[in-house]
Amino acid sequence: MPLVRTIEPEWLDDLPASDARAVRSRRDLKRINALMMNGALVARELGRAFPGQPPRVVAEIGAGDGQFMLQVARKLPHWRAIDVVLLDQQPLVSPATREKLAAGGWQTQLVAADACAWLTQPAAAVPDVIVANLFLHHFDTAELSALLRQLAQRTRVLIACEPRRSHGALLGSHLLGLIGCNDVTRHDAVVSVRAGFRNQELSGLWQERTAWTLQEGAYGLFSHYFVATRRVNRGTVAVPEFAQ
Q: Is 1 exposed, middle or buried (0-12, 13-18, 19+ CB in 10 A)?
């Protein structure tokens, strides 16, 4: 029987950024992203969406400490002169991470803001692509529908990686202690899987269907992906003036 989608609070969201358990959990997330192969998935979809010239502006919502985008950048070593906007409610990106991104030709702009509020702010232009990694599952159906509508108005490509809501992924989330994940990570992993997605659930909430090409499905053992690409000719866009 399929798991019913349920939303529960995740411990990491309520811990202070400097809390030792939160710091450890963010390190755990780097390993979990590697296990889920989310960085490889995003790099693959970026390459498919921009097979010729790379995008000028990439934005990640819910970017955390920026380590995920660093993983993606390292899988695209031939891409240069990328402006990357890392948005999160807490300023967690270290100078060292920014320097590593810059060494690969990815210049960072940090934005400390709520993603939903940021998406409603006027901008001079839209990002070529918005990435959401382990972010969309935090929202209930009504909130998610509104968020997807906002995202459709602010970008030409959306790439999302989420937990797969399946019994196999749930079993995997209960076994994370075997690779040394702490109590925060173990709790949040189970909660995340129960809030994750399956089949065409995200596509069903996308309202602008006629103007977009949608792809959605399972990836690897534990991931679910959703890619929305606007059906227009891609021209050059100006770097957005994002609110700080």
A: exposed
- Predicted TM-score of the model (pTM): 0.91
> pLDDT (tens digit, 9 = 90+) per residue, 64-94?
999 999 999 999 999 999 999 999 998 899 9
In 3D space, the residue among 116, 115, 140, 135 whose CA is nearest the CA of residue 7 turns out to be 140
20-36 helix and 38-49 helix, angle to the nearest 10 degrees: 60
- Residue 13 token pair: 């969201």
Alpha-carbon distance of 45 to 223, in angstroms, equals 14
In this structure, are residues 45 and 15 in contact, taking their beta carbons and an 8 Å threshold?
Answer: no
What class does CATH assign to 11-230? alpha beta
Contacts of the segment 12-19: beta carbons below 8 A, 24+ positions apart: 12/184, 12/185, 12/188, 13/138, 15/184, 17/90, 17/92
Q: What is the pLDDT of residues 112-157, one digit of tens each?
A: 999 999 998 876 557 999 999 999 999 999 999 999 999 999 999 9
Report how far residue 167's alpha carbon sits from residue 170's, in angstroms, rounded to the nearest whole number: 5
Domain ranges of the chain: 11-230
Question: What is each CA distance from 23 to 16, 30, 92, 127, in whole angstroms?
Answer: 9, 11, 10, 30
CB contact at 8 A, 42 and 161: yes
Q: Which residues of 6-27 are buried (b: 16+ CB within 10 A; e: fewer)?
A: eeeebbbeeeeeeeeebbbbbe
CB contact at 8 A, 148 and 207: yes
